[in-house]
Design brief:
single chain, alpha+beta, 3 domains, four-stranded antiparallel beta sheet, two-stranded antiparallel sheet, about 10% strand, elongated
Length: about 290
């Protein structure tokens, strides 16, 4: 296998993977033999018919599909190691050529984590926090303990919302197109599923909401981009503030869960839980800068 790397805008990349025909043929022969062993031809025991008769019954497209499945994953993994790439999304595969007797070629497009320019985020956050410390009539010191806690929680929530909005404005993230497209499609697919569960067609939903499919796609594209940007920004800030989540932190949350099924689910997704905890700690830290 021969590979070549092309850097694309942002953190995207394209790998071109070329397989010489002899290498393809070797895998093809193995797959064909496996398929042929299960073929039944009248007048012969299973797998014992002449090759020309078996070939008439074999679906070549399925054989070639299995050849691709055996060639690509290992080759893609080797190419990632060769070029020291760390993709954050599954590759989009394109078949460039796949003719019998000729070299096969594929293109795999994926993306690494984008770079984040944090700018002067600390000064911006400190400015927002400073505003929240100015006393005004009706602030927490004028309230009873219960109202005081409620008011503090509301103020904290408003402050974090303002910080998040400002971070999206001042921090720069060039999202990979493939990632933004993938996340948008997930949101649209989830909406379609929800609409169907409600007993409506997608067309009926569009009509009732007064939107076109293009407008809806654009709306979810904006939501996807904002969510992805915020995710990468908070990760970069967490690195900058040296926020770490320990195994003990994760286990502490899991052990507080009393429902056995939910506890099992949290344990199975401990990596995701650690990511959520780190994000929460980052927002808390920002709100107290």
């Amino acid at each position: 296998m021969i590979s070549a790397l092309t850097r694309l805008p942002g953190s995207s990349f394209e790998l071109t993977l070329t397989f010489p025909w002899p290498e393809v043929k070797k895998i093809y022969d193995v797959v064909f033999a496996e398929v042929a062993a299960e073929i039944e031809v009248e007048g012969f025991r299973k797998g014992k018919a002449p090759e020309n008769l078996i070939a008439q019954k074999v679906d070549k497209s399925k054989v070639y599909g299995e050849v691709v499945n055996r060639l690509l994953p290992e080759a893609y993994s080797k190419a990632l190691d060769e070029y020291k790439l760390k993709p954050i999304i599954s590759p989009k595969i394109q078949i460039v050529s796949g003719e019998e007797g000729k070299d096969w070629q594929f293109k795999a497009v994926a993306a690494e984590r984008p770079q984040v320019v944090l700018d002067n985020y600390r000064e911006m956050v400190k400015g927002i926090n400073a505003k929240g410390k100015i006393w005004t009539p009706g602030s927490t010191q004028d309230l009873n303990p219960q109202e005081d806690e409620k008011k503090k929680a509301e103020d904290q929530s408003r402050k974090i919302s303002e910080i998040v909005q400002k971070l999206l404005e001042i921090c720069k993230v060039e999202l990979p197109e493939l990632l933004a497209e993938s996340e948008t499609n997930k949101l649209v697919t989830q909406l379609v599923d929800d609409v169907r569960q409600a007993g409506l067609t997608f067309e009926q939903y569009l009509q009732s909401s007064g939107q076109t499919a293009e407008q809806l796609q654009q709306k979810y594209r904006q939501q996807a981009e904002a969510a992805l940007k915020m995710e990468f920004i908070l990760e970069a800030i967490a690195d900058d503030l040296d926020i770490r989540i320990t195994q003990q932190d994760v286990e502490s949350v899991i052990n507080k869960e009393t429902d056995p099924e939910k506890k099992k689910a949290l344990t199975a997704q401990s990596y995701l839980l650690a990511s959520i905890l780190r994000r929460e700690q980052t927002l808390t830290k920002l709100a107290n800068l």
